[in-house]
Structures are given as structure tokens and as C-alpha cells.
Design a protein that fits this description.
Two copies of one chain form a homodimer. Helices cover about 35% and strands about 20% of the residues of chain A. The first copy, chain A, is built from 15 helices and 18 strands. The model of chain A has no long low-confidence stretch (mean pLDDT about 95).
């Protein structure tokens, strides 16, 4: 494979083909569950270089079909399902998009921004803001993840309720195909019915059908005010009722609706003494609401208070606070965002990223809580997530005092079965926003429709017949 | 093919396999540009029957690969690009979805409605309204078109600005594949990252990859008030400036933004004397705005008036009226919706359904107007459309007094070239919302990226290797 490496060095420059030293930043996954070995980490600097690298690899694989060569596209390497790191064969090229990080163009009248795949999400947000606009994709890893990775995995986050997933924020893509061709699909069009929806096929394909090198994204006018409220709700049913009321009162101004269980919040209180967690001690769940208003802060406050009054009257909220200023709002969001770390400090747990229809949420939680309590005495549930999207991080923690590693080793398979079976029974998805990667690929075989899997395989084989692009991710062939 | 017909009669009942009599309702296209001959018009009553019909045809085609048998799926047969009627070989089965017309389920807490493909769009709107919700897909043919056809062609309409195309209003599909299998993808989920986006691949594929038999659609809370305004604007630039102001002032409450040229409005005034067309005589363009408010009519009016005041001050609007009541609002919309008929009464013209980025709209119109005026002395432009989506129906009418049929025969090819070349130069699409069908399939070969066409063909061949489903539509193979 030395001739291939020489060729790649000629394309991107020797300094940008790493084969030695500590490559763990590219070969180990974000949650450190998997560590692989790369033939090389290659850093092209342009779409043309990406295309040439892919073409060189495709040619090599045609010449040596048994070489085991393949390409793993990588953005910020912050994925949660082991989708962007190499396996341990030492025959995979990690193709990092980090050097493709330019904001190419902001089109104010068209409300679009065109950006290269390696641009950090936070940079996209900042550039949009500097131009007077709002790019509303927002998630915990935004300081490290790249927009290419966000699109490759169809990332979700906290504003999906109003703006949709990464997919819904993208109007066009530039993609390098498994043959090394460039699809110039950087459309800034809101309407284009000239054939199959290739854009949405590449989005969420986790690099298995091609490499996203740039995207044209939607911008929105900045809201005049963003107000945050925190409400105590007695049950999941009450939270769902509050969601319905919020949708009626706030319509599209409702940009966040996060539900957090009492145990999840108690972990934040326990491990982050500096954060004052409101209202959780006397309530089974709390809800964080955000209202992004196009008019004024006074209007936003009146609307939010009107909603909470109605909710108190209807009994779905027992108590509530509205943040008085940005610091208070920031603190409320910090509590929500500290749950993942608080649970980690409590000890490893079994993580899920599931969705069910909002109408089935209460029944799902009640029945699954019960099944798990029956299966494992004293089991603790770290239940929180984007209720407005029907998406819960329904995580299962060892009973108090039990060793977390032992718990994981002994219970993970069983717990996954209980949770995923319940998800299926409630018409849900076993991966709402994190994707499949290699971590969930076997689960998918079990929980996804065989017709869908067959169709997915046919598409993969048609577009990447030599299985060059991120093999073994999303689905297995044959 | 008699054995096949017998088999189909056994599946759906002899009364639902039509082979004789006047079949023009199914074999002639909406605009009467094309009339074909069907082997049979088949009306299955359920998804299972659709699957059996497709399976029987697939088996027949496998046995007799030279028989020329294929299936043309059909909804309301209101398409504008000859995509749902048979060719003249007499070897195509028209598979009508008209009998699959049940509303299966309304899920209020999940804000979804599950409906069969043959349900008329207006029925979907009415059922949503009866349940207290809003299904905002709206277009001229809504009394006849079906939701399956809307999804198969990714229909647009007048509310795309806020809610997106048909694609964006759909959460899940049930599809019969070209092999006669059923994909049970009727998800009511807002988030599901378990593999390739099959839903969006089938949407807009115009029946070439499978048959949509049912869909789960998004519902929205009904607005408290819908207000309509009519503004005179001096130029396309001014209309674009007004759009930007409206997006800032009204945010997501802006649900309609239609621009109409002076000549288009003069045709309405000429052919519909009962409609009083406001403000058009002294202005190059008029804009129809709609504000759907979640709060109250008073609030909606204050917001809309605030916008128009700001626009008058900035000079992008020279005069404006706000409808005082529903009747006035209805009349304003009726003017907009009478443009297609008014131009028809004036004589056939050369129709376009193009899109360009909003920021390029003024330059596109100015340069293309000029090119056409140079090419054809006295040419008249019926220019109107969904400016908020960058979508114009940029239609070209014969010079005053010239015979329309002669004009079309002599000028259509040349006019199309001028317009489509200009669209391409401005980064636009030659079919914004009507689709490709057979009418634009040759244009696509010329104007679409070869990499995109290659990828589309690979997908078609992988999913429908015997080319059973609506062959020759969207693209040609080989």
C-alpha cells in the first residue's frame, strides 16, 4: 500500500498524510469505547483534493480488490455511535475534513450560508450571528463537531422542535461520490423538483454513500427576545399536556421543550453543588421551555406567562419560574446540559437515544420503568430529553452502591432488549438523533423493517459497489 | 396479456379492472397535452391489493421481459408535466389509488394524521380542521388532487414559505416496492436516525421507485387569525426588500408572499370584470402577503400594519391595503388564483415553473425579460408566483393579436432555451414545484448535473431493475 500512500502524499502534501506518532485524536472514538488503527490519516485542503484522494483509493481498490482498503470520513470525531474511527485492520484511510473549513458565502437576501464540511458548528453559528442572522442548530458538542459531521449523521439537538434536524436546515450539498466524482448540488433553492432527493439521501448516510464537502444552510432572522422558563410537572402525561398548550400559545416561537426526571436532576444537584436546581425535589419531572420571540422581550414574557398561567390552571404545571435575565436563563440551560456529565460522575450507565410518538411517551415510560424495576431491583433511571420531539435519553444507571462496570457487563444486553422491545412496541426508533455507526448496526438488523434494510443495501451496492466508503457502518452487506 | 388481466380481476374484483369504454379520465393528462392508451385501469381498494397487483405485474414481466408491461401510478391525475398517464403502446397498467381514500388515524397529542394515498387534499385539510388542527398544504387543484400525488411529486403551493413543500409536511410513508413488497414506514416520529432517508427518496420520485399507499402527515395548531395584505411595489428588487422586512417583522407568522406582475394582473382585470384588482395600474408589481397569527386578530393586524408602515418608509412599498374581513381577503386571493385562468382566456402561452435564489430574482427577471424582448418583438410576460420561495411561473405570452397556437409552434423551443439557460446561469431549477414527468425529461438531460443523473439512474436500476414503475418519467435509462 506504499504506492497508494505516495500517491496520496502527492495529492495533499506529505505533511498532511499522517501515518506515525499518536493518531488517537482520529483513531479513538469520542466516548473512548473503541480504538482502531489507520493506514493513514489524510487531510485534504479542498473539494478537489478530496475527490482526488477518493479516486486514488477507488483505483487502488479496483486493482487490488482483496486489499481491504476503505475510507472512513471524519469531521470533529464527536459521534456517539463509533461511526467515524477506523477498525483495527490498519487498512482504512481516515479522511479528515478538518482543513475544509471556510465559510464560502453568506447570501443575506436568500437567507443562506454556504460553508465547507470541516467548519466547526459553533463557527457557523457565530458567522451567521455576525451577519445578523440565526443558524439554530445547537447541541452539546458544538464547540468541536463539524457541520459535515452534523449533516452526515443528521444531528438533532435542542431546537429541533421548531427548526427540525440538521437535514431540515440544509438546502444543498456538494458531495464527492465513491467514484471520486463531485456532485455540485450546492443549491440555495427552497424549491427544486428535478429528480430524486439526493441531498436527503447523503444526509444521515454517515459517510457510507459519499463524502459531504460543503453545504448551503438556511438562516433565520434573529429573534428579538429569547426567554426561558422552568416548570415542575407531576407526570409525563402532564408534560405532554403542557407541550400541547405551549404549541397552541406560542406556535413557532416555542423553540425548546426539554423534560428532565427527578433522579437526573438530583444527580446534577449532587455533583454540581454550585448549580441551584429549582423545583425538582417535590416534582417527578421538570420541563425547560424556550420562547424565541420575533417582537419584543415584553411580548415574549407576556406570552410565556400567559402559557404558564393556563398550565397552572389546568393542573399540568404545579409551579414555575421564568428567567429574569440572560444569566438566569443560562443557568437553567446549564442544569439541563450538566445531566450527561452528572450521570458520568455517578458512574457509567447504559445509554439510549430513543424516540416514540409524543402521544405514546407516557405509556412507554410507565411500562418500561416497570419492566426494568422488575428485572433489576433498585435500578435507577436517568430520564431526560427533547420531549417536544418525542426523543428521550432514557439511560439506565446501576442501583445505588453497585459497581458500574460490573453492572454494564452483566446487564447491558438484557437492558437494551427490554428498552428496544418497548420502543418497537410503541412505534418508536432505537436511534433518534445519534445515528447507527457500528455500535447499533446489529440492533438495526433486528429492529428495522427487512424491506427497509433490503432497500438500503440495494442503494449502497448501487452507489458504492466496491464498498469503499465507511464499510460496516449503518448496515452490513450480505 | 389476458392471463394477467384475469389475475388482476381476481385480486381487485372484475368491476375494478377497466379495459373498455371511455377511459380518458385516466388516460388523458390534466392539461390535455397528451392522451394515451391503457392496457387496463386498475383500482385496488387496499395496500394489500396494491401489493398483489404490483407482484402480479412484476411476475409477468419476469416471465415475459419483452412484453413492454409497466405500471403508471395515478392519484387525481392533476399533474402538469404528463407524469401519471399511460403512453400509446397499450401495454401500461394505470394503477389508480382513488379507492384508497381513508383517513386512518388522527393523533392529536402527536400532531399527526395518517391518511391513504387516494384521499383528496381538500378532504385531508377538512379532516384536520374538524379535529381542531391545520394541515397547511394548499394549491389550486386541492379539490381534485390526492395526497399520494402531492407526495409523489413533492407538491408546493402557497404556504411553502412557512411550512415547506409536501416533503416537509410528511413524517412517514407506506410504500409498495417494485417487487410488490410493503415498506411499513408510517412513522409518526420527528426523529429517527436509523439508516438512509427512504421517505424523502420516494417523495418526489413520481412513482418511478414504488407506489406510496399511505402517509403520516404533520398537523399544526390552527392560527387565531389569518390576515391578508396587498402591496404595490415598484420593482422586483423592492419586492425582495419587502420580503426581508416581512421575515424580520412576522417571522414564522408570514405564511404567504406572492408576487404578481402588472401584465398578469391586467389579464385578470380584462377577463374577470367582477374582480376589482387593486393598485396594479400604477405599479410594476403587486405583492400578496399573509400573516397567520397564533395570538389574536388585533395582534395580527398591528403586526401587519407595522410591517407595511416600515415598508412605506423604506420605499419598497408605494401603497398598500389590508383586508378588513374574510370576504376581502378571499377576494384578494381569488385575484391571485385567477391568473392561470385569465392567461388561458387570453390564449395558450409557454409556461415555466422555475426557481432561482431570492437574491438573484431581480437580476434574473431583468436579464431574461430583456433577452425575450430582443428575441420576440412585443412579447408579453405573465410573471407571477411564490416569491418567498424563489419560485416564479414565468410564462411567455404571444404578442398582442398574434395567434397563440402559431406562437407556441414557432417559439416554444427557442423561448424554453432562453429561459432555461438564464435559470441555469442564475443557479436555479427548471422545475420548482411541478416535477419532471415526461414533459421535462429531455430538458433534464441537458440542464441537470451529469453526476446527479448518473446517481439517479443507479438508484432507479437498483430498486426497479426491470423498469416496471412509470418508465420514462423523471429520467431515461441508458
Amino acid at each position: 500500500m506504499q504506492t497508494l500512500l505516495s500517491e496520496l502524499k502527492a495529492i495533499v502534501g506529505a505533511a498532511h498524510v499522517l501515518t506515525e506518532g499518536d493518531l488517537s485524536a482520529w483513531t479513538q472514538d469520542w466516548r473512548k469505547r473503541s480504538s482502531g488503527k489507520a493506514l493513514a490519516v489524510v487531510h485534504p485542503a479542498s473539494t478537489d483534493e478530496v475527490a482526488q484522494v477518493v479516486k486514488a483509493c477507488a483505483d487502488y481498490l479496483t486493482q487490488y480488490p482483496d486489499s481491504g482498503l476503505s475510507i472512513v470520513p471524519q469531521g470533529g470525531n464527536t459521534g456517539l455511535v463509533v461511526g467515524s474511527t477506523p477498525d483495527d485492520t490498519g487498512r482504512q484511510i481516515v479522511l479528515s475534513l478538518q482543513r475544509l473549513n471556510a465559510v464560502r458565502h453568506i447570501d443575506a437576501a436568500n437567507l443562506t450560508l454556504t460553508v465547507e464540511a470541516g467548519c466547526i458548528l459553533q463557527t457557523v453559528q457565530e458567522q451567521a450571528e455576525a451577519a445578523g442572522f440565526w443558524f439554530p442548530l445547537s447541541l452539546a458538542a458544538e464547540g468541536s463537531c463539524t457541520i459535515g459531521g452534523n449533516l452526515g449523521t443528521n444531528a438533532g439537538g435542542t431546537q429541533v422542535l421548531r427548526f427540525g434536524n440538521a437535514r431540515d436546515l440544509c438546502l444543498g450539498l456538494e458531495v464527492v461520490t465513491p467514484q471520486g466524482d463531485i456532485w455540485p448540488g450546492l443549491s440555495g433553492l427552497r424549491k427544486d423538483n428535478t429528480g430524486y432527493d439526493l441531498k436527503n439521501l447523503y444526509i444521515g448516510a454517515e459517510g457510507t454513500l459519499g463524502i459531504i464537502t460543503a453545504a448551503t444552510l438556511k438562516l433565520y432572522p434573529q429573534p428579538k427576545a429569547q426567554l426561558t422558563a422552568w416548570a415542575a410537572v407531576p407526570s409525563v402525561e402532564a408534560a405532554v399536556q403542557l407541550l400541547g398548550l405551549a404549541q397552541q400559545h406560542l406556535s413557532a416561537s416555542l423553540t425548546g421543550f426539554e423534560m428532565m426526571g427527578q433522579f437526573a436532576l438530583s444527580l446534577v444537584a449532587r455533583h454540581f453543588a454550585n448549580l441551584r436546581v429549582p423545583l425538582y425535589q417535590s416534582s417527578a419531572f421538570c420541563v425547560l421551555l424556550e420562547n424565541a420571540d420575533a417582537e419584543s422581550e415584553a411580548h415574549a414574557r407576556a406570552q410565556l406567562e400567559g402559557l404558564l398561567e393556563a398550565a397552572l390552571e389546568e393542573g399540568c404545571v404545579t409551579d414555575a419560574v421564568v428567567a429574569e435575565n440572560l444569566t438566569q436563563a443560562h443557568n437553567l440551560w446549564q442544569i439541563r446540559e450538566s445531566i450527561p456529565l452528572a450521570q458520568a460522575l455517578e458512574g457509567l450507565n447504559i445509554k439510549h437515544d430513543i424516540s416514540v410518538p409524543v402521544s405514546g411517551m407516557a405509556a412507554f415510560v410507565a411500562s418500561t420503568d416497570k419492566l426494568l424495576a422488575q428485572a433489576i431491583a433498585g435500578v435507577r433511571l436517568v430520564n431526560f430529553g427533547h420531549l417536544g420531539d418525542g426523543n428521550l435519553h432514557y439511560n439506565v444507571q446501576a442501583p445505588e452502591g453497585q459497581d458500574a462496570a460490573v453492572f454494564l457487563a452483566e446487564q447491558e444486553t438484557r437492558v437494551n432488549s427490554i428498552v428496544f422491545d418497548a420502543v418497537l412496541a410503541h412505534g418508536g426508533s432505537i436511534s433518534a438523533e445519534h445515528g447507527v455507526g457500528s455500535l447499533k448496526v446489529d440492533h438495526l438488523t433486528h429492529y428495522k423493517s427487512p424491506v427497509a434494510l433490503h432497500t438500503m443495501r440495494a442503494i449502497k451496492q448501487a452507489l458504492d459497489p466496491h464498498n469503499l466508503m465507511n464499510p460496516g457502518r449503518v448496515m452490513r452487506l450480505g
